[in-house]
Amino acid sequence: MKLDQTDLKILNILSEHGRMSYVDLAKELGLSRVAVRDRINQMMKEGIIEKFSVVINSEKVGKKVSAFFEVDCEPSALVSVAEKLVENPAVASCYQMTGPSTLHMHVLVEDFEALEKFINEELYALEGITRVETHILLRRFKSRTGLKL
């Protein structure tokens, strides 16, 4: 599917206002409600829009500590380590990065005691990890979900 300017506008509006109705989108774009719905349905069918979700402020629900990890693994263990880590509800995201079999991981926990428990009981308990580097988030300047077009 080739995206046109209208599709890009729809995506940008939805990235900021995901609950906007078809009627309100149509008014903003000068299209019919049906045309907007059909475009969104087509983008969902093509996998351009993967899902609609809610963004939760982690601090307001008790997850006060945000930590980023660089986890180096033995090459043969990378996938199994990643698969085990992503099962943990504290792991918000996990990506394979360039470098020596490196995972980049974002973890959200209640407090430093929970972070220490995660590191010692969940992370260090996994076989195949060769190095762990941890960075604690002090202040957020920008946080964005989704892609800006």
UniProtKB/TrEMBL annotation:
Which Gene3D superfamilies is this protein grouped with?
3.30.70.920, Winged helix-like DNA-binding domain superfamily/Winged helix DNA-binding domain
Sorted alphabetically, the Gene Ontology cellular component annotations on this record are: cytosol
GO terms under biological process? response to amino acid
Instruction: Name all HTH asnC-type domain ranges.
Output: 3-64
Keyword DNA-binding attributed:
yes
What keywords sit in the KW lines?
DNA-binding, Transcription, Transcription regulation
Supply one GO molecular-function term: sequence-specific DNA binding
**Pfam families the UniProt entry points to:** AsnC_trans_reg, HTH_24
Transcription recorded as keyword: yes
Which InterPro entries has this protein been placed in?
A: ArsR-like_HTH (IPR011991), AsnC-type_HTH_dom (IPR000485), Dimeric_a/b-barrel (IPR011008), Tscrpt_reg_AsnC-like (IPR019888), Tscrpt_reg_AsnC/Lrp_C (IPR019887), Tscrpt_reg_HTH_AsnC-type_CS (IPR019885), WH-like_DNA-bd_sf (IPR036388), WH_DNA-bd_sf (IPR036390)
List the protein's name.
Lrp/AsnC family transcriptional regulator
Species: Caldalkalibacillus thermarum (strain TA2.A1)
